[in-house]
Write a structure and sequence with these properties.
By secondary structure, the protein is an alpha/beta fold. It has a single domain, classed as Rossmann fold, CATH 3.40.50. The protein is built from eight helices and seven strands; from the N terminus they run E-E-E-H-E-H-H-H-E-H-E-H-H-E-H. The strands form two sheets. The chain has a five-stranded parallel β-sheet, with helices on both faces.
Length: 205
């Protein structure tokens, strides 16, 4: 078994993987490890949102508040992520897309859809060193869920269409990585009896 940096095993795959979950769920940590192990790029919706905030000279809280009053920001972000999903969905190369709606946006283009979560207190502790406070995170999370329901009729609590659902509080980063690595490496297209069907969301221009 080969490794990168002598720590985590490499993953030989061409799967398009999506990772979703609320703030503090461990998505960034997992995607960083997977990107290195799969030797592939990954796009984070959260990073794009932060870039927009920086470009506009706003904090995440300020941009989230603005997004509550106008759908322009969310729809622009989602259009961009959909374009990314469309490009990589036909590339037959490994790729990782991470955002709250990554699984919905990629829909049937994704080969494996992962949802990460952890108890609220654990997630609050994990983001303690971020500029966004736990209270602000909670407000943003509720606000986003409401907007997704309004724009796309998506219930973010509906998790059945994900292929893998993990409580990341139960394992350390290496343990979560190993579970996901096993799921990726053991995926056999010839034995795959089918993912839950997902209707692609309509994103207005």
């Amino acid at each position: 078994m080969s490794t990168k940096s002598g720590v985590f095993p490499t993953i030989d795959t061409n799967l398009f993987v999506t990772v979703s979950g609320p703030p503090g769920c461990g998505a960034t940590s997992l995607c960083t490890l997977l990107s290195d192990a799969m030797d592939c790029p990954y796009v984070s919706g959260g990073d794009v949102f932060r870039d927009i905030a920086e470009e506009r000279g706003m904090t995440l809280t300020q941009l989230s508040a603005k997004a509550q009053g106008s759908d322009e920001i969310d729809r622009a972000l989602d259009r961009y992520l959909r374009e990314v999903a469309e490009e990589w969905g036909t590339a037959n190369k490994p790729f990782i897309l991470e955002s709250r709606l990554a699984g919905w946006i990629a829909a049937e283009r994704a080969d494996l859809r992962i949802y990460l979560d952890a108890p609220a207190e654990v997630r609050k502790e994990r983001i303690a060193d971020r500029t966004e406070t736990a209270a602000e995170m909670a407000v943003r999370e509720v606000g986003e869920a409401g907007r997704y329901q309004s724009y796309y009729d998506i219930d973010t609590d509906e998790l059945e269409f994900y292929d893998l659902h993990l409580n990341t509080a139960r394992w350390n980063q290496a343990g979560v990585f190993e579970i996901v690595r096993t799921a990726i490496e053991q995926h056999d297209p010839t034995a795959d009896e089918g993912a839950f069907q997902t209707t692609p969301i309509e994103i207005e221009h």
